[in-house]
């Protein structure tokens, strides 16, 4: 990563931290909620960016991991509140409102699901891979819609915000700081993995997969590992999102959500460390500003996306860096 | 004579009705350069792909260092020491020259699942990679992105990647294709040096290079091995002249 890109990243992180805090200080707490949403959605996109940006795995089903993370949080919290065990046999497992425990479960559930979906879908490539990942996510979506125990189509409210030791999570500033910290940790993980032996092989697999086998590296296993890590990060985002809204619904599992996560990555810059952050921030900004003017703001979003794909492949981050180079 | 490192027996591969490999048996002994020649479409590249596991044979066996490997995957065979270069350069275009070669070290040493930190800072591994970069005369280009390399440099990068695997057998598929007279001379010298480290199965159309390097030559025509012998035997073989060398003289 160039010094220039590092500078830009630090700038973006500072903006995301300072602007909402300042706004809250001056009595505009609404921006705090927006910034929290940006931070959480960025985490979801960091997960996809790992598979898509580094490994070239165009998953159109990342809502599956996002939604499962959300349901993990919602279900655990609901059971903790109503006192019923989630599982009575072979051992009794109850709910919890303890955030770190919820995150762990969300990450594990998402990782396990990514493993199973990856086992089947990574045998295909190209359009087939896109379609299969989409199909699996849609299966989970319809399952959530039709399963009444946890709200079905109506979704599942979470009546408290889950707790974090030493913090008051109901305070918007503190919850924002938790989300922001989680984003920084996911970005650090992304960065460390990208620069590791594993990351080198993963980047190479996107460029020329067949050649990797001839160097002694099994591409399937490599991709499956990346897919699991990717799903796990997106699962964490889902758990936080459930806490932010205090509500989980099948919407989190829908293909719209998968599309949104992918849009964040593409808008911001595929494979760039801060691409997901720039993409999610721009998306939310457009949603807020254009959404006020017209209900059809997504038409503009579509046009913008088209421009990025046609003329600015590097997304927001790539374009800014190129401009400053020239 | 020493035991062969690589022994292929009665190997067959068909693509639909086309028999691309038709009962081929050959071996590769320690320290030798065994050239495989034959007209376009004879099945030379197909044979390489069968040996390294990119294609699966219909029948026959492949023994490498005394063990059957014909049921193993390509990556496993590579880790056991089967290295190959590609007829059409196959590199990682967005990685640097050094990273391309380093991946070969990392892959064959089974170090890919290191998630935190990398082995580029490992003196032994990075030394092995940079040695091969130097050897392939790419030292000045080590930090260049591979997509910026000239055709000749890509051919040499191919060879450097194969060497960085510390192969026990090296299969080179037309390494000199399109590199010009100077490039051919350089590569010929490099291969002479390498033969002491690893035997080479060399596919090459440049007959001067083949005659200068090979200990033995096998001739493949329409998927069948028509003859195997020393350089002088092949040079004077009537069938070979008709089937192949005659065509080269045109
Ligand atoms: N994947 C494939 N599917 C179908 N036919 C194939 C395939 N690969 C090779 N062939 C055919 O098999 C035959 C042998 O091809 P191969 O590439 O092994 O020849 P070659 O000796 O390497 O030729 P050249 O000197 O041109 O590189 C050719 O007729 C080719 O068209
Ligand atoms: Mg060939």
Q: Secondary structure elements and their pairing?
A:
The complex is a heterodimer of chains A (326) and B (250).
Chain A: H1 3-25, H2 30-54, H3 63-82, H4 99-121, H5 126-146, E1 156-157, H6 172-194, H7 197-207, H8 209-213, H9 219-245, E2 247-248, H10 255-268, H11 275-293, H12 297-311, H13 315-325
Antiparallel strand pairs in A: 1-2
Chain B: E1 6-15, E2 18-28, E3 33-37, H1 44-52, E4 59-64, E5 67-68, H2 74-79, E6 82-85, H3 97-108, H4 123-135, H5 151-164, E7 169-173, H6 180-194, E8 200-203, H7 207-213, E9 216-221, E10 224-230, H8 231-236, H9 238-249
Parallel strand pairs in B: 3-8, 3-9, 6-7, 7-8
Antiparallel strand pairs in B: 1-2, 1-4, 4-5, 9-10
Helix pairs in contact in B: 3-4, 3-5, 4-5
Helix/strand-derived class of chain B? alpha/beta
In whole angstroms, the N-to-C terminal distance of chain B is: 38 Å
Query: Any idea what the radius of gyration of chain A is?
Result: 20 Å
Order of strands, main sheet of chain B, comes to 6-7-8-3-9-10
Give the SSE string of chain B.
EEEHEEHEHHHEHEHEEHH
How much β-strand is present in the residues of chain B? 15-25%
Find the count of extended strands of chain B (DSSP E, 2+ residues).
10
Taken from the alpha-carbon principal axes, the silhouette of chain B is globular
Helix count, DSSP H or I runs of 4 or more residues of chain B = 9
CATH topology-level fold name of chain B: Rossmann fold
Largest sheet of chain A: 2 strands, antiparallel
List segments of chain B where confidence is low: pLDDT < 50 over at least 5 consecutive residues: none
Tally of individual domains of chain A: 1
Order of helix and strand elements from N to C terminus of chain A: HHHHHEHHHHEHHHH
């Amino acid at each position: 990563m160039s010094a220039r890109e590092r500078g830009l990243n630090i700038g973006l992180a500072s903006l995301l931290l300072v602007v909402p805090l300042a706004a809250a200080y001056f009595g505009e707490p609404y921006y705090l909620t927006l910034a929290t949403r940006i931070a959480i959605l960025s985490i979801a996109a960091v997960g996809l960016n790992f598979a898509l940006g580094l490994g070239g795995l165009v998953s159109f089903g990342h809502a599956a991991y996002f939604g499962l993370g959300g349901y993990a949080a919602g279900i655990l919290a609901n059971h903790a509140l109503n006192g019923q065990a989630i599982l009575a046999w072979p051992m009794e497992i109850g709910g919890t409102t303890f955030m770190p425990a919820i995150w762990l479960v969300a990450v594990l559930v998402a990782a396990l699901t990514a493993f199973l979906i990856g086992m089947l879908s990574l045998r295909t490539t190209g359009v087939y891979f896109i379609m299969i990942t989409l199909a699996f996510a849609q299966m989970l979506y319809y399952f959530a819609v039709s399963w009444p125990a946890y709200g079905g189509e109506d979704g599942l409210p979470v009546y408290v915000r889950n707790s974090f030791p030493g913090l008051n999570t109901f305070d918007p500033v503190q919850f924002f700081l938790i989300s922001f910290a989680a984003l920084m940790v996911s970005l650090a993980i992304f960065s460390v993995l990208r620069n590791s032996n594993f990351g080198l092989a993963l980047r190479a697999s996107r460029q020329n997969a067949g050649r990797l086998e001839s160097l002694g590296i099994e591409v399937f296993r490599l991709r499956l590992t990346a897919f699991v890590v990717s799903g796990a990060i997106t699962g964490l985002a889902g758990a936080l999102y459930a806490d932010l809204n205090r509500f989980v619904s099948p919407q989190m599992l829908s293909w719209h959500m998968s599309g949104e996560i992918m849009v964040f990555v593409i808008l911001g810059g595929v494979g760039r460390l801060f691409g997901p952050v720039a993409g999610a921030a721009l998306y939310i900004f457009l949603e807020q500003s254009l959404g006020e003017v017209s209900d059809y703001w997504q038409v503009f979003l579509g046009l913008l996306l088209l421009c990025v794909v046609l003329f600015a492949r590097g997304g927001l981050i790539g374009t800014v860096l190129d401009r400053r180079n020239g | 004579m020493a035991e062969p490192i690589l022994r292929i027996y009665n190997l067959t591969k068909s693509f639909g009705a086309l028999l691309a490999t038709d009962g081929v048996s050959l071996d590769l002994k320690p320290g030798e350069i065994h050239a495989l020649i034959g007209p376009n479409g004879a099945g030379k590249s197909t044979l390489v792909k069968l040996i390294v596991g990119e294609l699966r044979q219909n029948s026959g066996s492949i023994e490498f260092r005394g063990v059957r490997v014909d049921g193993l995957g390509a990556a496993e065979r590579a880790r056991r020491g089967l290295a190959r270069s590609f007829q059409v350069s196959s590199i990682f275009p967005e990685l640097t020259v050094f990273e391309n070669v380093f991946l070969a070290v990392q892959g064959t040493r089974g170090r890919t699942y290191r998630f935190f930190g990398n082995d580029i800072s490992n003196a032994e591994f990075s030394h092995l990679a940079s040695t091969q970069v130097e050897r392939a005369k790419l030292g000045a280009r080590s930090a260049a992105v591979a997509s910026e390399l000239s055709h000749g440099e890509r051919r040499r990068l191919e060879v450097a990647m194969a060497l960085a695997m510390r192969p026990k057998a090296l299969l080179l598929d037309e390494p000199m294709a399109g590199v010009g007279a100077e490039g051919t001379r350089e590569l010929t010298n490099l291969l002479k040096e390498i033969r002491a480290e690893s035997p080479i199965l060399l596919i090459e159309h440049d007959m001067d290079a083949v005659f200068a390097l090979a200990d033995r030559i096998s001739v493949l025509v329409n998927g069948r091995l028509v003859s195997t012998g020393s350089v002088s035997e092949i040079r004077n073989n009537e069938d070979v002249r008709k089937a192949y060398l005659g065509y080269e003289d045109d």
